[in-house]
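Session log. Operator J.P. requested a structure for one protein chain; no other inputs attached. Running the standard single-chain path with token output.
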Amino acid sequence: MTASPSPALPDQRLATGAVRLAARHAGHSSPETVQRLLADSYLRLAETAHVNTHLVVLAERLATERLNALAHTQAAGTGIPRVLFVCSHNAGRSQMAAALLGLRAGGRVVVSSAGTDPAAEVEPEVAQVLIEAGVALQDAYPKPLTDEVIQAADIVVTMGCGDACPVVPGRRYLDWPVADPDGVSVTAVRAIRDEIDAHITELLATLPGA
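Structure written below.
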């Protein structure tokens, strides 16, 4: 039987990344799957990008996260807990929650975040208050919500995405009614950060090894 051709790449600069990812994920994902997820990641990010300067790099990073999640699901969900934070734009609340959990957990969890309608960039006030808390967000970017990441999550924490929030059987769901930091003062964003951090402390106490 003839193998299906790999999906066309929307930007030929992705070709090097496709080869690199295919080698890294050999045994878990076929080259066709790698190229499909990489192309799809690029197109999803391009929908909201203001400029395309870093789009190839970000697409490879997003595809890497999706491929790692897919490999985790194929391994029947073994390993440390995976926590997914979801809000509307992945530019504020879910970014803060993921960054703070990553800081506090000390490697005890795999953390990811996504948005049901991702923005073009992380809100500057959010980056500022996280730096104040000891977390640098220089590599953070809003990510679309994808099936691979949802399926791999053990715990899904939603924050204001309403009916667009994912519902997958067998997952532990938490909903944190935290205010949206978009358009408010830095002082107000600090208060939102501290509220999220209190939720993070409560969540950590329920995880294995707490």
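Operator note: Residues 12 and 149 are 26 Å apart (CA to CA).
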